[in-house]
Amino acid sequence: MKVALVDYGAGNLTSVIKALEAVGATIDLISESPALADARAIVIPGVGHFAATGSLRGAWTRDVRLAINRGVPLLGICLGLQWLFDGSAESPDTPGLGFIGGRCFRLEGPVKVPHVGWNSLDRTDRPSRILDGIPNGASAYFTHSYAAPLVTETVATTVHAQPFSAAVERDYVFGVQFHPEKSGATGLRMLTNFMRLAADRR
Amino acid sequence: MLAKRLIACLDVRNGSVVKGINFEGLRNAGDPAELATRYNEEGIDELTVLDVTATIEGRRALLDTIRQVSKQIFIPLAVGGGIRSMDDARAVIDAGADKVSLNSAALADPSIITEVARVYGSQAVIVAIDAKRAGDRFEVFGRSGTTRVPREAVGWAAEAADRGAGEILLTSIDRDGTRSGFDCGLTSAVSRAVQIPVIASGGAGIPEHFVDVFSGGGAAAALAASIFHFSEHAVRDLKTYLSEHGVPMRLDW
Fold first, then answer.
1. ipTM over 0.90
2. Model pTM?
3. Nearest chain A Cα to B253, which residue?
4. Considering its fold, how many domains does chain A have in total?
């Protein structure tokens, strides 16, 4: 199964590639949006500052929307999840995809920020295909300072001073704030779910 | 709730794991990929590979080690030792490291912190500080703890955070290799001064030491080497013990 991995210059892709390969993916690293036209599964990774998603403006945004409308499964990881929303307080002038309503906010409170380490995924009442087989309370690895609000699409929440969306899901669009590529067996299970969903869509 | 992290440090020299006592007297303790796999099965939360060689052959072996470990193990992997430039950072990250740990290079030119953070994000940048008590101050040492630099640990940690570090790895030179407990005073002083997580290192000997540094020292994570290397089930037993003593731990793996 071929996965189109969007390379828009936001940090390290090696770990994501290795984990996807470990669950049977062949990676098609794409740096130009027209390549999305024949993608069967899309992963948008990303670490770092929300401003980095600025390079997804224009053609990328248009071609991602077209892929979503075709029903191509899409997974956003970390910054990739945040980009699915309207925007982020981290870079107010950078628009997100706007597929999910709401703006990302900075984590605040009597806690260490960034939120770094293993925290639990609390499943919501909304059924989830991407978290299939992952028990309530399972641990996942996070590293971020900004987070997405709780919305209708939220399928798992995590609390670090404040609750935020750890995973969102609508149609064939999925987003996770944690790093499945660094979350041990739980992360690999989630990636396997994504691959299976993509394979079933073909 | 965010769990406290246990990090196993693999001191690697020419492709095999060693552990220094007070940064001297190294002894062999196994193959890095094999040890990493065992730790992962035991439930370790994160791995740090510290390269204690500086030779060309040693660096090549290090990159091979990182490639091997990161192909099989899907938990965070930090790499430190001898990262002097952006090119060095890029090489270990391309090999599969998630974070680089900067020490002497950051002391020599702190702008490298910002440079690496700008390309890979702050979450990829750990600034490692080796500190030694001098009265009520904590002096900073570079070059594997051998050379004193005109900096003080609390201030240096705050500056590193301002420059873009995502975490501080704080090693007590006084305690390292002694198994007499972490320096909780040092850990607490630095942890209170910065908003980013502090990883305590140096002095782990018995499980109580971890309780002390997580509760009294304010550490977000604790790093150790020999306590994990020389006994079976050490990681699992320690996690169970800490959990029973009220320290939030990741127990599903």
1. yes
2. 0.95
3. A185
4. 1
